[in-house]
Amino acid sequence: MATIDDVLGAIDAGQTAALERLFAFLSIPSISAVPAHFSDCERAADWLAAELGVLGFEAAKRPTPGRPMVVGHIKAGRREAPHVLFYGHYDVQPVDPLNLWRNPPFEPKLEAGPQGEQILARGASDDKGQLMTFLEACRAFRQFGGPPCHVTALFEGEEETGSPSLAAFLADNAKELKADVALVCDTGMWDRSTPAITMSLRGIVGEEVVLTGANRDLHSGIYGGLAVNPIHVLSRILGALHDDSGAVALPGFYDGVEEVPQEILDQWNALNFDAVAFLRDIGLTTPAGERERTPLEQAWSRPTCDVNGIVGGYVGEGFKTVLPAKASAKVSFRLVGKQSPERVVQSFRAFVTARLPPDVKAEFISHAGSPAISLPVKNQALRLARRALETEWGKPAALVGSGGSIPIVGSFKRELNMDSLLVGFALEDDRIHSPNEKYERTSFHKGARSWARILAALAA
Amino acid sequence: MATIDDVLGAIDAGQTAALERLFAFLSIPSISAVPAHFSDCERAADWLAAELGVLGFEAAKRPTPGRPMVVGHIKAGRREAPHVLFYGHYDVQPVDPLNLWRNPPFEPKLEAGPQGEQILARGASDDKGQLMTFLEACRAFRQFGGPPCHVTALFEGEEETGSPSLAAFLADNAKELKADVALVCDTGMWDRSTPAITMSLRGIVGEEVVLTGANRDLHSGIYGGLAVNPIHVLSRILGALHDDSGAVALPGFYDGVEEVPQEILDQWNALNFDAVAFLRDIGLTTPAGERERTPLEQAWSRPTCDVNGIVGGYVGEGFKTVLPAKASAKVSFRLVGKQSPERVVQSFRAFVTARLPPDVKAEFISHAGSPAISLPVKNQALRLARRALETEWGKPAALVGSGGSIPIVGSFKRELNMDSLLVGFALEDDRIHSPNEKYERTSFHKGARSWARILAALAA
After folding, report:
1. Residue B78 neighbours by CB distance under 10 Å
2. Residue in B with minimal Cα distance to A188
3. pLDDT-based confidence at residue B313 (cuts at 50, 70, 90)
4. Dihedral angle at the C-alpha atoms of B32, B34, B38, B43, nearest 10 degrees?
């Protein structure tokens, strides 16, 4: 029987080949939000199914009404070994504005960063690089007879578009997918040298609203003043979504929001989060949200509302004195505690509808909806994984919250009654969802080593 | 010496060839707002210079810092004949959204309309079709020895982008261009059977504002709540541009706005403007502007503010939870009376700047600025032209106001101390600046006849 050091040695020795595999994966522009890239999503799924096959998994691409899932299974040598489900997603965010990239987003490149080499590409950090840390750990175990746990791999292709097919897929395949614990690699480290396990995730509601006034675009010289302008109406509504204290103004929005227990707040305060440096990195000086909350509370435990996109009228070069027929916005809400996505949707739609003047109609499109989730602190897998991470990094793993949403975690709990262990190696300056996304080579290498240690610890 | 009936007969006999010439002109996509179409603007100018040459004008394309002007001169047989300057513009509006056009916008087509044949193309009404009514009148006169007035033709290629080169060109060529009166064909009829002379024009200010927050686009899950969102800030500012009564809220905005004299208001009321039908045609029921003003006052004599375009964040298909670094809007103001464009610009910029939270910067781009203008009722050319129009159409010409802006008219007054006679044959359903722009074949035909009668009347 091989020791963990044999496995870690195999990971260390295979870094060049591991990078080549990751680059091949990153070269596929699997943008799930853009129909022109649906065929690339298929290619990415095929690539993953083939990779799992190479690693000894029984694996297949599995159809959904949207982008396909990839599912694979491999047995441990010991029948009584624990069964883990590993989750990652192969879809990536759109890349615009393309002109801000230093290198084409789907031509991955290794470059020198301020703290060592980094991998530059869309999806390098979110989530292809992270996903591959686990597969590289499995590959190392394969040299010594296979992983110490039974492993099910589940790769999704719609994470960046709100996971519309996920709940039904889990429900339809519950027996096949249910495991003792889910391992999810889509989160970050506390900092460059401190690993983290994410204990809570905000939920999300994504709504698009399209306002329509006249039956066609008009000349503002002829109709201005007489004809209603949907951009004005939309601006007024969006401008009213927050009150002067920075709080969200939707009636009932804060129903179900819970205060963070003092002991957790104390632990967060002990992390000495440097809000000034956090904001300075993105060119800002002043926290913009709820005035009476600390920055870490705002990011991890408070619900928010952001307009993610707005468009109406003429937006090309120069000027056009059009009075547009339509204006639209994409709005997302981050949820915490027991906030109900359905009620937030209802409240938002009522808020908009109540503010429509005569002749303006609103159409709504739902893009996402999932509640917040938090993990029990007493979980045994959590305890074992935390120790494994400490061994690899030489520091205790921070137990943190997250401002982002990973719908899968809620679905695992609801559909499969399965807790999730969220361990990831992204850094806050990875520029995920932005131009020049990168993943540290250290994250990729020590991420694979971390998973090897975690699998060994869970199986012990 | 030929009679006016000979000239009108020549116009009637030449309709087919006249349409072919107009179609050739309409086929040139001379969109002045879009750099990719600058070479098409040159082509349109060349086409016009050649046409003027065919009609006996001494004509040339004349460079400016932007799109070129075209200037031509022709002498009347009688030396003491009056001298008129005819103005039109060869540039057209952008055509998006392209998918709403029934026919490609630069492949002109004759089609049956509810009231007769109409010419479908971008620029058919604004302003290529109108411009050609005058040239077709000149062509008919040419068969009988030339026009009865000395004529200078001036064609501009930047009317749709705020005429940035116009004032300097007029100042630099004042002696060459000065005439007894300017004839401007860029306005409309009162209705399908009633000609109109436009006595007042609103001015315009066009401002673009770009707000910048963070130094890059952010993930709203990680930064939402902490980082300022420029779309929120822009929405709040734009939403505050109007108060609850529909009035523009910029400090000092109404300085210089004059009440319309009661006798003019009485004439307007006598026109029996059907605001319900006017709005019904564009799918609306309720005037949206200042509550205490009649619809005709709102359109002709009151200043307004419209957001003509807004964009920020992700506006593609699907959803992207981005917290954008930038958001921008194009805003125009229509001015009346003695409102100062410079003061409105200053007030707008101060209004925006005063509402910026920490970390948000505003950049401003000026696209247009010209004051309102009105014409003296006692003008002799006006009296003669009104009678000529009545003869052609069998009805007195209405003396109307206009909500739109034609910067040239102010420039003619300021730079050349020349009044303008605004006569045009567009109809309110011509969809100028919108998809499926059209010009009635009747407007084209009787427009040419009207100019023949006006030139004859001015020379009598």
Report:
1. 11
2. B222
3. very high
4. -60
Size of interface A-B (CB pairs under 8 A): 344
Query: What residues form DSSP beta bridges with A15?
Result: none
Phi-psi region at A125: left, alpha or beta (left = phi > 0; alpha = psi -120 to 50): alpha
Q: Is the dihedral of CA B103, B104, B105, B107 positive or negative?
A: negative
pLDDT average, residue stretch B220-247: 94
* Interface membership of B358 toward A (CB under 8 Å): yes
* Chain B residues closer than 8 Å to A284 by CB: 213-214, 227-228, 359
**B310 contacts A311? CB cut-off 8 A:** yes
Interface test with B, best of A297, A321, A323, A345 (most B CBs within 10 A): A321
Residues B401-438: pLDDT tens digits? 887 777 788 889 888 999 999 999 999 899 998 999 99
Q: Which of A285, A305, A187 is nearest to B225 (CA)?
A: A305
Mode of pairing for the β-strands spanning B181-184 and B420-423: parallel
Encoded tokens for B267:
């004439």
Euclidean distance between CA atoms A349 and A367, whole angstroms: 14
Interface test with B, best of A201, A215, A253, A282 (most B CBs within 10 A): A282
A166-214: pLDDT as tens digits: 989 999 999 999 999 999 999 999 999 999 999 888 889 999 999 999 9
The answer to whether residue B60 neighbours chain A at the CB level (below 8 Å) is: no
Residue B272: burial class (beta carbons within 10 Å; 0-12, 13-18, 19+) = exposed
Instruction: Give the pTM.
Output: 0.75
Q: What is the model's pLDDT at position A1?
A: 58
Q: Is B249 on the interface with A (CB under 8 A)?
A: no
Residue type, B422: L
CB of A92 within 8 Å of a chain B CB? The answer is no
* HSE value, Cβ hemisphere, 13 Å, CA-based, for A19: 19
CA distance B320 to A335: 17
Residue B231's Cβ-count burial label (10 Å; 0-12, 13-18, 19+) is buried
Flag if B323 and A330 touch (Cβ within 8 Å).
no
From the CA of A315, how many Å to the nearest CA of chain B?
Answer: 5
Chain A contact set for B314 (CB, 8 A): 94, 96, 308-309, 330
Q: Mean pLDDT, chain A, as a whole number?
A: 94
Phi, psi of A155, deg, nearest 5: -115, 130
Choosing among B310, B360, B428, which should be mutated to test the A contact, i.e. which has the most A CBs within 10 A?
B310
Neighbours of A12 (CB within 10 A): 12
Q: How far apart are CA B228 and CA B359, in angstroms?
A: 8
Which residues of A fall within a CB distance of 8 Å from B220?
A: 304, 306, 308, 332, 334
Spell out which residues of chain B touch residue A400, defining contact as CB-CB under 8 Å.
none
Find chain B residues with C-beta within 8 A of A162's C-beta: 319
Average pLDDT (A246-250) is 95
The secondary structure of B312-360 as a DSSP string is EE--SSS---EE-SEEEEEEEEEE-TT--HHHHHHHHHHHHHHTPPTT-
Share of chain A above pLDDT 90, in %: 77
d(CA B121, CA A237): 37
User: Could you report the per-residue pLDDT of A302-318, keeping only the tens digit for each?
Assistant: 999 999 999 999 999 88
Catalogue all structural domains in chain B, each as residue range(s) with its CATH number: 4-201+374-459 (3.40.630.10), 203-257+303-370 (3.30.70.360)
Residue B18 phi, psi (nearest 5) = -65, -40
User: Sorting pLDDT into bands at 50, 70 and 90, what band is A267?
Assistant: confident
